[in-house]
Design goal:
Elements (H helix, E strand, L loop, with lengths): L1 H13 L3 H26 L16 H19 L13 H15 L1
Helix pairs in contact: 1-2, 1-3, 2-3
């Protein structure tokens, strides 16, 4: 599990977008906490609360969330070479708003 967390953090360091960095670091933290809590429950250091061990235990929604999260991390790695662009407001929004205002004024 430490290898998986280390790899997610490495992907986060290599990602150029702020969303990718924030997502990878927060997912690595959540994954690490899942593992630590589960292992502490097995050792008897924490009371058993029912959180499954990621990737190993069969928990329906938990497994789906972990796999979905790992998919987004892999997407951050695959699309790392894409240029990071700033959001530009589409010009069509102005035309749509003015068209709506015209149609309201004509009624």
């Amino acid at each position: 599990y430490s290898l998986i967390v280390w790899r997610i953090i490495k992907i986060g360091n290599l990602t150029r977008s702020n969303f990718g960095k924030l997502y990878c670091f927060s997912f690595a933290t959540a994954f690490f906490i899942y593992v630590v809590v589960n292992m502490m429950m097995v050792l008897g250091l924490l009371p058993i609360v029912g959180s499954p061990l990621p990737i190993m235990s069969y928990g329906g929604s938990s497994m789906m969330a972990i796999m979905f999260g790992l998919g987004i991390v892999m997407s951050c790695k695959v699309y790392n070479d894409m240029p990071v662009t700033k959001y530009k407001k589409p010009i069509m929004d102005k035309f749509i708003i003015f068209g709506l205002l015209k149609s309201l004024n004509n009624d």
